[in-house]
Structures are given as C-alpha cells and as structure tokens.
Amino acid sequence: MFQEVDDLKAEGAALHSLLATLDAHDWERPTPFKQWTPWDVVAHLHLSDQWAVAALQGRDAFTQSITPLLLAMNARTSMRDYTRSHFRALPGAAILDSWQQCFDDLNSRLAEIDPKARLAWFGPDMGARSFVTARYMETWAHGQDIYDLLGRPRVYTDSIRAIATLGVKTYGFTFNNRRQPVPSPEPYVRLTAPSGAIWEWNPPSDTDRIEGLASEFCHVVTQGRNIADTALTVTGEPARQWMAIAQCFAGPPETPPAPGSRMIPGAR
To answer: What does the pLDDT average to over 213-230?
Structure first.
C-alpha cells in the first residue's frame, strides 16, 4: 500500500460519515453543483468506482464496463441521466451502502497493486499513483457539494497536496482542452497547507504568481469555487487567465461556477 491509498480511504470515510447524517428529504435536495442531489453525487462516485474496479481487473474488463456509457453518450444521454437509470432502484440509504461496499472493494484492490503499474482509463493509460490521486480528487471535490448543501465547515488535511499538485500539472491541459494557446510563463504557485507548511511549484516570480490557502486553490482547480469567492492573490495575466477557467479533471471543458453560487450559508 502507498500513501495515496490511505488518503483515499480516509476521504471516503469522512464523506460517508457526513452522508450518514442525511434524512430521506436531504437525499433529494439540490446541491449547488448543477442542481445534483446528494443521491446524484453518490451514484456518480459509485459508478466511477465501479469503473475503477474494472480497470484494476484489466483492459478488457474496463472496456466492457464503460461500453454502455459510451453508447448512451453517443445517443446524447447526459451523465446524470445515465447514472440515474443505472441505479434507479436504490434509494438514498441503499445507494450509500452500495457505494461503501464498492469503495471498500476498490481500496482493498488498490492496496495490493504495484505503484508503478499502468491502468486503463478514459483517454491514455494512467500510472497507479495518478489513478488513485484522481479517485481521491473526485471524492474530495464532490464531497464539497454535500458540505455546501448542509452549510457545514470542512476540516482540511495536508493530503490535499495531491490535488494542488494535480492542479498545477494540469495548467497546460486547461488551455489545450479549450483549444486555447497556453500562456507563458507558468505562474509561480505558493500555497499555505492546512498544517501551516508552505508548498511551492514553478520558479519564484513577483510578476506571475498565485498565493494563498491550499484549500482554496484546490477548490478553484476542481471548480468547486469561483476564484472571486476566495482570498487567493493572483498576479499576472497568465495566472488570471488560468484561475478563470482552471480544470484539473479529465473530460470536455467545464465552466467554473458563477461567483457566490457554490455556497449556501446556513442552508441547514
């Protein structure tokens, strides 16, 4: 087992504890994320984890597992509608239990994998560490949908460094994915970790830089917050362009949330 697996397990446990507090009504309330309900969020994570388990079983198993999705997308079915049809028989508490069983299975398999292994996924194959980091990032990011809905504060840990690093590494992807030129230079990123440690990426610069809390940076690159809703200091045109559209997750370009739209203060 490597550290990224421990971090994924811990994040899943924290999210499960939060979701276990929901009542039947809560499961159908729209979150600030595209009006998805907590049921939609958990079903999405569950389906993604099922695909991850299949990827660990080999390329053929993964290809077979995603074929129905690809056919549905070709028929212009949305991911939300596809997921709902896939798990339509499971109410809130049941989808939570089913996800937890799959999540535990996934982590048990990940604990046995070689960190240097290559795994099939959407797009190019991924290294095992990157594969686990992607699952951690998605679990963490969608967990925020629930915290926002409930109006509850979140406890951050230094495990989010993996998300911050992913955010920095996907600087070029953010622009290439939109078929836009990649501005130069890549900004210097200096973040304060939850522990108070300082994390840095790229050569220091006074004219092109991003500075502030690592948690806020992670929310921006996962599109859980608009840059305007953070206290991040953004200096230089490349940095401003990046933070306006940052996207550290795979898939077609997504539009970041509008200012103020991803928080519902006192929702409960």
So the answer is: 97
Are residues 50 and 170 both part of a single domain?
no
Rounded to the nearest 5°, which phi and psi values hold at 266?
A: 65, 30
Domain of residue 185 covers 160-245
Closest to 163 (Cα-Cα) out of 214, 111, 206, 105: 214
3-state secondary structure of 105: helix
Q: Which residue, of 155, 186, 201, is where some domain finishes?
A: 155
Which uninterrupted H or E stretch holds 211? strand 209-213
The pLDDT confidence band at residue 73, using thresholds 50, 70 and 90, is confident
pLDDT recorded at residue 124 = 86
In the beta sheet, which residues pair with residue 118?
A: 127
**What was the pLDDT predicted at 244?**
98
At 13, is the pLDDT very low, low, confident or very high (cuts 50, 70, 90)?
very high
Report the C-alpha gap between 144 and 5 in whole angstroms.
20
Q: Clarify whether residues 25 and 98 are in a common domain.
A: yes
β-sheet bridge partners, residue 198: 192
> What is the rounded average pLDDT of the residues 250-256?
92
Does pTM surpass 0.90?
yes
Q: Give the pLDDT confidence score for residue 265 in this predicted structure.
A: 57
CB atoms within 10 A of CB 241: 18
Residue 125: what residue type? D
Q: How many domains does the chain have?
A: 2
Assess whether 89 and 212 both reside in one domain.
no
Domain shared by 143 and 202, yes or no: no
Q: Is the pLDDT of residue 267 over 80?
A: no
Q: Identify whether residues 86 and 178 lie together within a single domain.
A: no
Residues linked to residue 210 through DSSP beta bridges, in sequence order: 189, 234
Last residue within a domain, chosen from 155, 182, 206: 155
pLDDT at residue 263 in the model: 72
Distance CA 201, CA 156 (A): 20
| Single-letter amino acid, residue 100 | Q
